[in-house]
């Protein structure tokens, strides 16, 4: 049910990559796990046997996407609620308690933000560190130094975006903007449509933009993506999840994961994916039809709302370090636990119309695009919705953080398999980005 790998041969200057590692495709047996939140709520989720889940941070609002800072700390965005508002924030999750498996400090790095969705760190060619933040109407960046608890500079506006449209209740507006850096040093920004299905007046709508890290050289890299909320770069390849239109029925169109190609038109509003086919929307006929519209690399149930994605790298056999950025004090021995190695997780946020009931889960896909089934189930129950998965951040070998923007919870998911010897150090491995790296990508 998930898929990833990309063809950013489209990205100028990007070298080819080695074949993905062999993925463990063993069928997964899910077992129940009890969840207890600080607000008194109790429910059960289902995870693969050999894994456990627990709240690592609570008391947040509409918590969305993560980034790891150059000095190894976890930053996360918070949009406050579903409305168009200026009460959003960026939080630092700090003080990792390896015994309790939770963060002991949550501090506010920024507040008063208009719908902050996506965050990334970047080190420029002069060695300066920057925090990038995508807001509804603009892309901004701040100077960053190790240990910062507040910005060291005023926001530098790099780009502005249209911010009008229909309310989210009517399938439009799309307040979120998402960002990712690629290995060629370019920055990619997704801008959703202003409507459910319409002919847009501005070319930046329903597109992915490419620009330099200072905002110059902006151009439309790919178009026809109604709302590409999840962007990730893996092995210098750009990937995007995309949300389909709402007017085609309960089971169409598929939600999709794409290999994003330079100059490609992914069809919206004229065409949509259904299975392995690309079909024409009868409401929006066009002369050339759907010829040349790329097929998705992976598809998900209609209206499941595919959001965040993460790749889990394979640790070198002779390495004691964890390429997936283990938390400080983690007792997971990276080289021994490799079940997720070479595969991807995608968060299916869940259909806005809860009667449809699609999504509300995490799914897994192999490095070759094979669907590997569900990984976490149970965010929608008979009694109602208990969570909506959104962002994923690799946080140790076979372990990750997962944001729930419905309850304002960050979960820590990890293997419980026995290991021989804990790592000798309680300090996290170096996670300092190179001049072409980013925080909010799935790049290991």
Model description:
The structure is a single chain. This protein is mostly beta strands and 444 residues long. It has a single domain, classed as 6 Propeller (Neuraminidase), CATH 2.120.10.30. It has no helices and 30 strands. It has a 4-stranded antiparallel β-sheet with strand order 3-30-29-28, with no helix packed on it. It has a 4-stranded antiparallel β-sheet with strand order 4-5-6-7, with no helix packed on it. The chain has a 4-stranded antiparallel β-sheet with strand order 8-9-10-11, with no helix packed on it. A hairpin with a 3-residue loop joins strand 9 and strand 10. It is globular.
Features of the shown structure:
444 residues; mainly beta; Neuraminidase; four-stranded antiparallel β-sheet; 6-blade_b-propeller_TolB-like
Q: Output the number of helix runs.
A: 0
CATH level 1 class label: Mainly Beta
Question: How many domain regions?
Answer: 1
Low-confidence blocks of residues: 1-19, 329-337, 418-444
Radius of gyration: 20 Å
Structural class designation: mainly beta
Biggest sheet record: 4 strands, antiparallel
- CATH topology-level name: Neuraminidase
What best-fitting shape do the alpha-carbon axes yield? globular
CATH H level, superfamily name: TolB, C-terminal domain
Question: Mind telling me which CATH architecture this is?
Answer: 6 Propeller
Q: Give the N-to-C terminal Cα separation.
A: 21 Å
Total beta strand runs:
30
Give the proportion of residues in helices. Answer: under 10%
Percent in strands: 35-45%
Mean pLDDT: 85
Organism: Montanilutibacter psychrotolerans
Keywords: Signal
Protein name: Glucose/sorbosone dehydrogenase
Signal peptide: 1-17
